[in-house]
Amino acid sequence: MSSLTEKDRPIVQLLLNTGTCPRCILRFCCVGSQTLYRRPYKDLMKDLKDFLKNNQEKEDMVCFDIVDPPCKRIRLEDTEEGSDDLNHNGALQQIPPVNDENTAPENSAVKVCNVCLGILQEFCEVDFVKKVCQKVNSADYQFTSFVFSVSLPPQLSVRECAAWLLVKQEMGKLGLSLAKDDIVQLKEAYKWIIHPQLSEELDVPADGKSLFEVSVVFAHPETEEECHFLATACPDCFKPAKNKQSVFTRMAVIKALEKIKEEDFLKHFPCPPSSPKNLCVALEIQCNNGAVFVAGRYNKYSRNLPQTPWIIDGERKLESSVEELISEHLIAEFKADSFNFSSSGREDVDVRTLGNGRPFAIELVNPRRIHFTAEEMKGLQQTINNSSDKIQVRDLQLVTRSAIGRMKEGEEEKTKTYSALIWTDKAIQKEDIAFLDDVKELKLDQKTPLRVLHRRPLAVRCRIIHTMKAEYIDEHHFRLHLKTQAGTYIKEFVHGDFGRTKPNIGSLLNRTADILELDVESVDVDWPPTLDN
């Protein structure tokens, strides 16, 4: 319904008399015209009074003549027996008939609405919109559109339920019914009003798919007082939760309202809802940009640098990490709150990563700056490379969240190439290791290594050594080049890990073998795309 008609008259009279604001009245009359809600508050109040003064017999529309597609429906049904006013022992209060004298004088102070607690009143005005926009502009974000979200005090659902029961009773007298779902939702009406104002002030469009979110959290000092009866009636709906200051969350209250019987509700909460003592307060005005993802490849040249911070029992073992050397510059340039680092596998602290490097991706959380040209990304890459001789990055670029999945797929499916410097206890000659060059597709059974058992589940994993090539150095040393299945534990393949990896270089050579140095020579994942650096 896009306008008020004659059958809305008793509802308008009833709600206006009980302290409900004009916009909430439109909601309960199922008015779906967004334009009507945007009219100035004083104009709406005057329109409603004019509507009540008009006694036409037809369902004419005094000033509610703006045509929008129907949004909500009111259904006709036979009037049920027992729809008369319930008595004071748990029921709807008698509402005196409304006449011109009952309506508030035009110049009186605006009373806080007994349903929305002021959300559709003061918080729709220009001053509040400017306050929100000042907060957004001072946060210094880059954005080309926005999505607006709002968090409302939980007792608004309670007050709306009370008002709905009141209206439902009044409509029952007319042989009509009003389903709770037919009422225009408070959040929906609020966004209809706020979106155009924010869009004009910020000079960007509102877009439900935007990654830039402007959110307002409203609170009310009487939330627990007004919701407490629900906890008594439906204790199962209210359970303490981590990170929640109160058990009276919006979802818990809605769940309780669905569960409680109408007669029990009416025994404990006034209907119509009483005039509030306080207005809602805007507790928080926050901005948040969707994450930005940066990918590239890194080389690690140090044998004393972990991939991620090395902290044991709260104590830091080494001063830096690959993750930190890269991310500290990205955090600064993107002005992000935090980051999440991921890569295609990982190397040990004493292992170098050479060749084309290891693919990595960094999620930058809530960045203020999001637009970078290819030249700017190249400059950022150079800044990272100039800052340390322990790492270098290449192919640094912006990517999408979905693209990162390709890196993770390759982590298990692709091959990796290594170079290992190996020591043997017994002397060897070239001919003793020559046979390794002919070994192809060697299957290993690797029980979880002792060194990672504290963080990996105990299991036996089947891995494949695709090819090997041995380079003799002296009687106790040789270098072994291996191409393996991703996820192969190379160190354990060399020394056997007390028999937990079978076969191993020691068992193949029939002597004790150990690994002195290990380098990752290539990670065969075709991602991210190679750039002309």
TrEMBL record:
Residues 113-287 form the Pus10 N-terminal eukaryotes domain. Its main location: cytoplasm. One of its GO terms (molecular function) is metal ion binding. It comes from the Eukaryota. GO terms for biological process: tRNA pseudouridine synthesis. Keywords: Coiled coil, Cytoplasm, Isomerase, Metal-binding, Mitochondrion, Nucleus, tRNA processing, Zinc. Its EC number is 5.4.99.25. Residues 81-100 are annotated as: Disordered. InterPro entries: PsdUridine_synth_cat_dom_sf, Pus10-like, Pus10-like_C, Pus10_N_euk. It is found in: Cytoplasm; Mitochondrion; Nucleus. It catalyses: uridine(54) in tRNA = pseudouridine(54) in tRNA; uridine(55) in tRNA = pseudouridine(55) in tRNA. Residues 293-524 form the Pus10-like C-terminal domain. Belongs to the pseudouridine synthase Pus10 family. This is tRNA pseudouridine synthase Pus10. It comes from Cochlearius cochlearius.
